[in-house]
Amino acid sequence: MAAVAGEVRVLPASPNWYSSRCSDTSSDGRFFGFAARHRVCLLDVGGAAPAFYGELAGHTERISAFAFCRCPGQGGLCASGSDDGTVRLWDAEALAAAGEHGMHQNAITALHWSPLVKDLIVSGDEKGIIVCYWHNRSDSQQFFPEPRTVFCLTCSPHHENLVAIGYKDGMVVIIDISRKREVLHRLRGHDDEIHCLAWCPVPGEERLPAWQEELQVVPSEEGKVPNGELTQDTTTKKGCYLASGSKDQTIRIWSCTRGRSVMTLKLPPTKRRGGAVDPAVKERIWLTVHWPPGHPTEIVSSSFGGELLLWDLTQPAKRKWTLLGSSEGQNHSRIVFNLSSVKHQDKELLFSISMDRDVKCWDLSALECSWTMPSLGGFVYSLAFSPVDTGCLAIGVGDSMIRVWNTLSVNNIYDVKTFWQSIKSKVTALSWHPTKEGCLAFGTDDGKVGIFDTLSSSAKNKPPQISSTYHKKTVYALAWGPPTPPLSSGGEGEQPSVTLYSCAGEGIVFQHNPWKLNGEANDINKVIRDTNSIKHKLPAHTEISWKPDGKLLALGNEDGSIEIFQAPNLKLLCTIQQHHKLINAIRWHHEHGSQPELSYLIASGSINATIYVHNLKSVIESTSESPLTITEPFRTLAGHTAKITSLSWSPHHEGRLVSACYDGTAQVWDVLKEEPLCNYRGHQGRLLSVQWSPVDSDSVYTGADDFSVHKWQISKQEHTRPPQGRKSIELEKKRSMQPKVKTKKKKPTGKSPAKQDLSDAVNGDESTKETLLEENGVSEHEGGKAQEAELPDKGSMTVSKDTSSSACDYSSFSLPKPFVTQKATPVKKDPPKEKPIPDASLKKRKPRSILPFSTFMDHRSKDELHQDCLTLATCLKTKDNDDVSPDLKDRIHLGLFTDRASLHKMIDMEGKHHLENGHPELFQQLMLWKGDMKGVLQAAAERGELTDQLVAISPMVGYQAWVWTVEAFAKQLCFQEQYVKAASHLLSIHKVYEAVELLKVNHFYREAIVIAKARLRPEDPILKELYTSWAAVLEKDGHYSMAAKCYLGASSPYDAVKVLAKKGDATSLKTAAELALISGEEELSATLSFRCAQDLLLSRNWVGAQEVLQQHKTLFGQRLVFCLNELLCKCLSERHPCDQKSPVPLCYHNWELNREASFLDMVIEVWQNVLGMDTTEQATCAQEQLRSIEHPPSTSNTHPKQVLFHISHDLTLAALSYQTAAWDEAVKSILGAVTRSYDAGNFTLMQDICSIILPEGCDNLRHKLDNTDSQGMDACRSLEGFVAYRLLYDLWWNPPKDSLVLQKAGLDPVLCPSEQTALENSYISGHSSPEETPHQTAAEMDENLCNTTEAHRCETESDSRTSSVDLVDRQSKLNGCKVLLSEETAALQNTQRDIAEVQQILADMIHQHQQQRNNLQENTNGSTQESNPQQSSETELDKPCSDSNQMNCKDEVKEPITLPELTKQLLKAKQKLAEFPDNLKMFPFPDVLECCLVLLHTGSQCPPELHRQALDLLRKHGSASIYKKAGTKFLT
Predict the structure, then answer these.
(1) Cα 998 to Cα 949: distance, rounded to the nearest angstrom
(2) 3-state secondary structure 1459-1486
(3) What average pLDDT is seen over the chain?
(4) Residues 1137, 1141, 1142, 1148, Cα dihedral to 10°
(5) Which of 517, 424, 432, 508 is CA-nearest to residue 471?
(6) Phi, psi of 756 (to 5 degrees)
(7) Which tens digit of pLDDT belongs to each residue from 458-514?
(8) Angle CA(1354)–CA(1359)–CA(1362) in degrees, nearest 5?
(9) CB within 8 A of 781, min separation 6: which ones?
(10) Handedness of CA 1071, 1077, 1080, 1083 (dihedral sign)
(11) Tens of pLDDT along 1513-1532?
């Protein structure tokens, strides 16, 4: 981790993508750090140009967050958070670790170093856990504000306890991390990922007058704190603005005091320079925001295509934004992820990192780009200096792009052009044309070969030429060389002076014609075979190198041999058999030295760590016809401890070579002296490529799998030789393994999975898989994502290995090169360094042998087997002579080699063996081979071991056997409860009825019906039976709608209707009614519709009810009733608005009502206008319909809504009579409605109905009646009685307004039904009808009246202020109540009361008697009774009177009444009743004595005459104890 020694220039690894803060600047302005994979790269940005400072290595997985400490004097401290769940602290200057913590259990997604607390680091992870860590005291605290993925977080620069957190789903939360631990605000507004949060650098929220317009806030409110949530701290009081950038393409400015958004900025649709963006492609967007210090009114943000925008927040109207970087090429070309700024000397600098892999520095005052630092997103596989354009270095990178670096540029030391068109895969090989400027050939991981023109002015947009011939595997090497046949043979006019040769992983070298890349390339193996008459298989080629003068070609092979061919016909001159492992690099010495013989030197490196140099001068000059074999090297360069990946001769020296190695170092050698000169150890990974600088003899360029290119100076290195010994090897091994990641890995942002490489070695043993974190997740070009798995150079692929030749074999953890030889060669396997991963296919168990006994017998000792041969020969000889089956005795297994009879014996023996060992399936298979299938089937059927396979092959035996087997199998399946499968098998032998019956019996009705319907005639009775059986089961289980479908299927719509209606709720009834209508069941449909309508009425849905009824003409009368009911309910609810608190919403029609007319007129008008009742015939018809319906009398237990419905029925009849002018009928119907409410004990309802129907009393009606019609007159009299009864109570309960009674008298609330009864559904039964329960009514009255009588009287008499006018008016009204004081009616009611009383006593006696009998039966087992039955009967008999009135009990206890006496009393009373005229008994009438009592209670208001009359009636008829008690006050 030490800083790179000397003057090193570096193209570093690319910054990581999709993180909210993975780059930052130190507060002193010296360092800019960014996360690159699992390391942090530090640039020294103090000077005019950036310089690579070093790397911070330690994390094992991708770093997702990085921040510097902001405290003065501690500018070098920084912290990083990673997917490995750890937070690490670093000292940037020393490049050393300074601490770590692992509080997070999950991948960390965001981190910030508090700007106010110098040792506080706040981090958040993908599960939503926030950890605050104070590193000086190693203290920590956890928060869990939201169970969501944290995307970004930032600590407030003004208040040390405030932290803002942005989440994946668009929520922003501000928390207080002090002891309060509270969430201050949840800011909702964004609807996608929050990419960045930035606090305003200046505290307070009154800075920007332009904002108030959007807020519409009165200035005086500015200071107010919402909900008083924030502390008294002044900075908090003043608040602070917070900016957030989100994937939803908006930036929002939030007020922290109000907890709401004060401004929203929408990204403008800026056009990408270099063509518009395709509107169909969804734009990739990352919206980061930065609020530069000292600029409270300006914000910098990223935009769609990589542009940066500076927003001026003071512009109120059209939000004003300015583009950074006006001139071409200054802006990023892809989305920008992070922005950070720093004050440096007098300038304010802004740093940005982007998906285009550039780091840019901007001058904020000029809005111009100061410098750009390119970076690399993959392994550096190849380096190549142009032979024509000096200093122009091409770099082939694993991020599918080629970089061309002008290393001699003066103004910009990082002058790099990028080429990516049409590459779409890792660039593994490069080669410049020897003479043509700007012509660069490239080869890729997917076998593509192409040529770029790097010079053309529009180079950035010009795609390369691609050869139409692809390699099957990775391209390892490219070389330009003279044409060889067939290209060299000419014939077609002019030919290119040089052609392009490519060598790839499948071991083939192609020659491509650069003038005709679309033509077929030639495999040079053909030429080699023809020229050298080779018949055997050629070795697979792995490296290609032409001697610079173009006369010799060296081919390196997979078996470690190097072959030298002579151009142009590729005659084989010699083979170098030195390396025994795959050749990675071959390089010829240059030709421009002072010693020309050195140009015959050829250096080669392989998977073995040793480099060999051979001198081919003598070979080339030799005249030998046949090729030579060289086994002795000219020089041996030993020292590296892992495979050699690349070599480069110095163009400035003679015999000086540099090598790149997997041990992580580059080594400079003096070849002639075999001496190591200098070792470079600045890389953090394995080296893959090396080039000596063509312009500076002291500089070398190296590329490695740490994603970087280093330019270093030989003279400044402290080491001279590669690291040695076991320890160093372990270190190197560790380092090279560092990028390994878990194969199963979730990326926290959900953006893109970490890329991995899983290329396998061919050897079975060597299946080590290396997984390497790819460059920032994804490499993308032209909108597409190219999956990037890092691929090694060819070196790691070996077929035949020999460990002995190298001190340490590194191949076991090297990255293998996918490569297959054409034919299997014998493979020498070396012991693996790591435990091989067992192949999945090997894990499968060997299948069980079908002939285990004979197999075993053939694996005995040699002597036994020899004996077998002799026995067999003897047997066969005997058979030839005697023609008798040989007796093999105990050697039954030899039956395999003799006749059929013996074989059968052997098969039986083996079969028996299988059955004993519990493998019947193998026995069955043997029997099948033998041909004895019938026996097998019978045996299997008996044992219940039939299988699908046996059934399938049973037809071999014959049709009958097959049918028998299938039946047996079906039975077996039934035992195993696989009924459906059994039925299917029965179908296969055409037993349809049996299959259906089987399914039906086992309740598989659905399946049975499918089979029956599919296979039987439609009229088959079994179908109907199936439907009805299933329907019965379904009905029993309550699945009514399903049952209805079954009945419909069985053509029984009537049953379907019945079952649907069974549930009885409104929707079921409605459906059932419609179904009945469809099926032609008119009457049933009408009944159900009426039931449904009644249900809807209970839920107060009149609209629904009318809809249901209107389908049936026969229900027209009911429609009238429902209509009247609705209007009546409307009237009642208007009278008692307080009672409208109903749980169900009311559903009224919006009819136009004539409020001026009387209620019945209004109803009739609605009937005519809405329901279309125009003619008298219709009215008469409806009347007949309704008359036919009898409703039972109401009692106090009848549901209020039911009572109201019955009343509506009566009133409908009244209205119809009214319309047809049948006045006597109308009176009777109205009387019915009034008495019904009276019988139901609902006094208020009775009052309301009287006042709604008869607001003016009964006089109008009386005039219309025919005087001769006595019944009509009687009914009218009764109705008048009830109207008067209502009036009487009204006058008594509502005394004169000026009297103080209401204020002072303690009125019992039970006496105010008008206040207390609730509309319709909650009436309290104020009074029951006297005929039914006289005791109760009287008792209630007594109790209630007694309480208040005195108070009333005192108040009324003593009150001097009662107005005489009012009194006169009330008295006249009371006179109207005279109709109630009917002597005849009082006598009748008294008699009825007597009868009721006697009947009650009789009933009690019977009840008593039954109880005694029960008791006697219980005690028959001899236990004596406690008391005399006679006695108990007496005591029980007293009870009724004690209930009715306890005062009078004393008199009655003495004399128990006997049964005869009672009967006598009853007879007498009934005779008396018969004497009364019938017209009195026909219609009900209010209780006369009750009315007398009420009149007397009204005191001074009551006219004297009425007072007297009331007293007389009381004296005469008030014999019942309850009236005696109530009347004592008036009668004494």
Answers:
(1) 23
(2) HHHHHHHHHHHHHHHHHCCHHHHHCCCC
(3) 79
(4) 40
(5) 508
(6) -135, 160
(7) 545 688 999 999 999 999 999 999 998 887 765 555 778 899 999 999 999 999 999
(8) 130
(9) 400, 401, 420, 421, 423, 424
(10) positive
(11) 777 777 777 777 777 777 76
What is the distance between the alpha carbons of residues 1025 and 996, in angstroms, rounded to a whole number?
11
Burial (CB < 10 A; 0-12, 13-18, 19+), residue 265, is: buried
Q: 71-74 long-range contacts, Cβ below 8 Å, gap at least 24?
A: 71/27, 71/118, 72/27, 74/118
* CB environment 1296-1321: b (16+ within 10 A), e (fewer): beebebeeebebeeebebbeebebbe
User: Which residues are 1488's β-sheet partners?
Assistant: none
- Contacts (Cβ under 8 Å, ≥6 apart) of 1440: 1400, 1401, 1404
Nearest to residue 401, comparing CAs of 416, 382, 415, 420? Answer: 420
What is the maximum span of the chain, computed from C-alpha positions, in angstroms? 166
Distance CA 357, CA 332 (A): 9
Read off the amino acid at residue 1432: S
pLDDT given at position 1119: 82
Annotate 475-514 with DSSP letters as a single string. Answer: EEEEEEE---TTGGG--SS---SSEEEEEETTS-EEEE-T
Q: Give the bridge partners for 189, in sequence order.
A: none
C-beta separation of 834 from 816 below 8 A: no
CA 844 and chain centroid, separation: 38
Tell me, rounded to whole angstroms, the distance of Cα 29 from its chain centroid.
45
Residue 169 has pLDDT above 50, yes or no: yes
- The model carries a pTM of 0.54
Whole-number Å distance between alpha carbons of 956 and 1297: 112
Q: Are strands 183-187 and 194-199 parallel, antiparallel or unpaired?
A: unpaired
For residue 113, which phi and psi values (nearest 5 degrees)? -95, 125
Question: Which sign does the torsion angle of CA 1035, 1037, 1038, 1041 carry?
Answer: negative
Tokens at residue 1341, please? Answer: 């009255």
Taking CA atoms, 86 is separated from 58, 122, 740, 937, in Å, by 10, 12, 16, 68
In DSSP notation, 1262-1330 reads HHHS-TT-HHHHHHHHHHHHHHHHHHHHHHHHS--TTSSHHHHS---GGG-HHHHPBTTTB-------T
Residue 835, sorted as left (phi over 0), alpha (psi -120 to 50) or beta, turns out to be beta
Q: Are 581 and 609 in contact (CB under 8 A)?
A: no
3-class DSSP state of 450: strand
Note the helical H segments in 1376-1448.
1383-1418, 1429-1444
Burial of 1420 (0-12, 13-18, 19+ CB in 10 A): exposed
